[in-house]
Amino acid sequence: MVEASAATLVPHGTVERGARHWWHDYTVMVLWHLASLRMWLVTLTVVQLLAGVGFVLGISLFFAHIPTTAALFVSTGVPVVNLLTVGMILGPQLVADQRSNGSYEYLRSMPVSRSVAAAAWYTVCLIGGVPAMVVALGVAQLRYDLPLHVSPMIVPAVLLTSFAGTMLGYALGHAIGSPMATRMITQLLVFVVFGFAPVLYPLSQMPRWLGAVNWWLPFRQMAVVTRAALTPGGHAAVMSAYVVLGAWAIVCAALAGRALGRRP
Amino acid sequence: MTAGVVGARPRHVPQTELRSGVGYWVASLASMMRFDYGRVRQWVPMMIVIQTLMGAGMALLYGFFYPHITAIRALYITTGAPTLALVPVGFVMLPGTVAEQKLEGTFDYIWSLPSPRSAQAASTFTLFTLFALPGSVFALLVAAWRYDVHLALSPLLVPAVLLCALMAITVGYGMALAIPNPMVTNVVTNALMFVVLLFSPIVYPASQLPAWLATVHYFLPFYNMAVVIRAGLTSGLVAHVAISFVVLAAWTAAGAAATAWVVGHRR
What mean pLDDT comes out for the span B70-74? Predict the structure, then answer.
């Protein structure tokens, strides 16, 4: 940029920095996402509600008489699934679609910084995940009469779980160029989260080596922090779970930031 | 057509003219099968892998949900695995393929070919039924190995698996043709998978369902698929196998009728 003109001429589409601008850009981007994705968000909310409630109710069919532990694990695992669905599974697929139909470059040309874009998307993911999570928990409580005890720690647990999932999805969506590969990986992730991570059932029911592998992955830790905030009693592994989850969130955010590149 | 009066209609028979007759139909079927196979050849190994992962993966995954896997639970999960592997081929992959063909225009191209459309449909049914078989065998082997289950194979297994595969493919194809919008097809297939994986008595006995849901499943294909395949793999575990065969045959006929109804209308 030529120095002489910089003072007088701000080229159209240049990011303006500073807290006030950041907040303005952020609100505009959130509103922009909500407006452009309104149909998608309505469909998404319905699907999320059906899937969450469906899982909570459907699991009882697997047993002649469902043990309370099984019901408790599924009911406190479904919130994690709800929170991950938007940011980690549908988000990358949305980016893949945008790459296929060309709106991706248009979105990237918007004059907002990377942090604004990420924060706005994170907010949209929370809006898409939290209501379904609340409804699923309510239905679980009605159906199974569970010993749930919601502690204030639910706030950081939900925020961090959603943040780590959204950043993982953000990194996947923006760092992987091929839409086809993105779709394959996210579908594989669905399989892993639902079945091969101790999210919906206790760790003791999976082979020991698979549990050990899961310690390094974020999903087991997401379930630990969320479950600790929803059930009474002390939970030993919560601190280490927050640390592992936090590390995943930071690494994924850094990867996503690198893939997006600094906006001039 | 023989050479007739000079100055009459040109003797040239256009290549696109629709001919008929049993011989022509069989020849069309053979060439359509070569055409279809050539198109999907590169995807066949991947299809079989996905299907095996789906069937075997689901069989392993269901086991994680139980605190104790009793012998009867292991038997139900193992004998449900081939059914779980057959469902996605017919109800997800085939409609997905048709939806993609509609979007990229291949579908119209195939319909414009001078072969009877019934031969085109029959070619799809035959090929996909054959593709569906290896994955379900692999899924059964993985599940039997994981849960250490001893099976009692009976000759009934052959017609059972063939009918299940044919039914899933016929109904999936009929559905894909009858629903004009590919997006709607996509939603329907995903919803179906959810119903199949959670709310269908495939890996657990129907007696665990509420009575009304069990009644609904007597008329839907999924429970009946599990019954006939389980009857071919075990002895004494299931009853009323003949009724299940009839229900499956009825669904196959319905799928074929839907297909015939759509392909019979020339646009």
Answer: 89
